[in-house]
Amino acid sequence: MSKPFIDVAVGIVLRDDGRVLLGQRPAGKPWPEWWELPGGKIEPGETVREALVRELKEELDIDVTAATPWVTYVHEYPKTIVRLAFWKVTAWNGEARGMEDQALAWVNPHGPLEVGPVLPATEPPLRWLTLPERYLISHIGSEQNLNAWLERLDAALADGVRLVQFREPEWERQARNDQTERAALERAFQAVLSRCRGTGALCLVNGVHQEAWWSQADGVHLRAADVQVRRAVPRKPAWVAASVHNEEELQAARAMQVDFMVIGHVLDTPSHPDVPGMGWQRFAQLAGGAGRPVFALG
Description:
Elements: E1 5-13, E2 20-24, E3 35-36, E4 39-41, H1 48-60, E5 63-76, E6 81-93, E7 104-107, H2 123-128, E8 136-137, H3 146-158, E9 163-166, H4 169-175, H5 179-199, E10 202-206, E11 219-222, H6 224-229, E12 239-244, H7 247-255, E13 260-264, H8 279-288, E14 294-297
Parallel strand pairs: 1-6, 8-9, 9-10, 10-11, 11-12, 12-13, 13-14
Antiparallel strand pairs: 1-4, 2-3, 2-7, 5-6
Helix pairs in contact: 3-5, 4-5
């Protein structure tokens, strides 16, 4: 017997301090006393935004004035399948209050939650909220360039960058048969990792580099070719990301349940002079089917 499929609009109601609003499901409903993000079923004829505005008014007595689509995510419960359209709500009129006598809590997604348990479909977006909005990718090339690049990294970290990928494919190829280059490449990795640790930034390692580095860093960023040949990541690190360029690669990354994707390149770029960018319209199409946060490349 097939499960009912339900489309739901969900609000990521965010305060300026980064805290997000959760509500506790009242007694008499499925999953009573569990905590969730506010929202509800999209009625026939409603847009996602219309449903979101209506639900937040009914649940919280707030009037949404600024909301943007974020991630559309499908979750299968024991009795239903829900497609959750998560929208970030950053401005509203009124003060949130539980119109169904439900308890409310403003929680910090970056720390241990002050309430719980949370619904299974609420866990992924709370984790995604800890991702920074910018993603810096290394381009060092050789030991001679290291000090100058580290200075640029220091400046970027001082400017608020909190997500860095160590990606040196050309240097990696040189190091495979040259122990001196191998040692220099590892020193570069450790230097980047140390600076990230010192500022609280996440550091991911590109899949071109040895697996032993993945656990030293905060995770791995898989190339599109890696995703095509892998079914899973052994000893899954804290974060797993993937690069995708088309629908086939996107579906493979989804099947691996990566945490986020980088889609591109969007615009023409000097690093791929013979390959035109996909453009923002194609990027939006792919991003809409990712089912997790995405970054635009190029």
